[in-house]
Design a protein that fits this description.
There is one protein chain. With 284 residues, the chain is mostly beta strands. It has 2 domains: 79 residues, no CATH class; 167 residues, no CATH class. The protein contains 1 helix and 24 strands. It has a 5-stranded antiparallel β-sheet, with no helix packed on it. Strands 7-8-9-10 form a 4-stranded antiparallel β-sheet, with no helix packed on it. It is globular, with a radius of gyration of 20 Å. It starts with 6 loop residues before the first strand and ends with a strand.
Length: 284
């Protein structure tokens, strides 16, 4: 299986079809939405996924189903082995990460048949953001950077944020261990690995992590009102596209600055807060 496991989405309805971001159903906004509109967005329930399909940026409604990736064995869940489950096959078994939000989560190693297992935990003194009250071990996903397997851990709960990246290595005795790699200002909501660089979206904006360990947060981008982000892709024109709540955002790196272009559904271009966050203007 070469480390790739198909995700089983439980209780998932039939997926909505993909729609081109250039189709009439989407409109490029002339400017960033006003603060009043952005403050309204957290009350909306329309979330968008983005993908690059045949060279075009495509959009569809995000699935809200739990992610439970497949394992070839059964086990009796212990504490911190509930919620979303993400799986990576390794040479001597499986790395399995769990995320149950504020109810916990963690990373475990299972042997090939699942009979043996061991929890993998960061060292107590592993670096964390100065404002991180959790040092959460919830596993958000696996990725790789410069040939190194990474696990992204974190938790955003109420107004508190936690986000870190760890390398997953075997020591000389063959035991798996976590090695601190990067600290973010919140949990990784979406990410994109490209050669020697990893792009990470948090509620605080866009971060880049290079294979040499250098970390950068791009200035001028706050996605708190329109998060959580769902997906991140690189278009053929070099720009990044982020699937968000109500909006899709295009980011282009220009001279160390992020140029932002916002897209909204054409049937709901402008928002206003009344009894709920409602559409105030549509494309004619």
């Amino acid at each position: 299986m070469n480390g790739y496991i198909l995700a089983i989405l439980l209780l998932q309805p039939a997926p909505t079809p993909w729609d081109s971001l250039e189709a009439p159903s989407w409109t490029r906004l002339p400017e960033r939405p006003s603060n009043n509109q952005l403050e309204c967005v957290p009350y909306r329930e329309d979330f968008w996924s983005v993908a690059l399909i045949d060279g075009a940026v495509m959009v569809r409604a995000r699935s809200t189903s739990r992610v439970v990736e497949a394992l070839p064995f059964k086990y009796s869940p212990q504490m911190d082995q509930r919620g979303d489950r993400r799986v990576l096959q390794v040479s001597d078994g499986w790395l399995v990460g769990f995320d149950a939000g504020e109810f916990g989560g963690g990373l475990w190693w299972f042997g090939q048949d699942g009979q043996a297992s061991r929890r993998l935990r960061p060292l107590t003194g592993a670096p964390a953001h100065a404002a991180d009250p959790f040092r959460a071990e919830n596993v958000l996903g696996f990725t790789s950077l410069g040939g190194q397997t990474l696990v992204l851990m974190g938790l955003d709960h109420l107004s508190r944020r936690s986000g870190r990246a760890f390398g997953v290595n075997q020591d000389t005795g063959g035991n798996w261990q976590l090695v601190p790699v990067a600290v973010f200002d919140g949990s990784a909501e979406a990410w994109l690995a490209e050669d020697e660089r990893l792009y990470v979206i948090t509620e605080g904006g866009l971060w880049t992590l290079k294979s040499d360990g250098r970390v950068k947060q791009w200035p001028g981008l706050d996605l708190g009102p329109v998060g959580p982000a769902d997906s991140l892709v690189r278009a053929t024109d070099g720009a990044l596209y982020v699937g968000l709540r109500h909006y899709v955002l295009r980011l282009e790196e220009t001279g160390g600055v992020l140029d932002q272009t916002w897209f909204a559904p054409s049937d709901c271009l402008t928002l206003r807060m009344r009894e709920r966050c409602e559409c105030a203007a549509r494309k004619r």
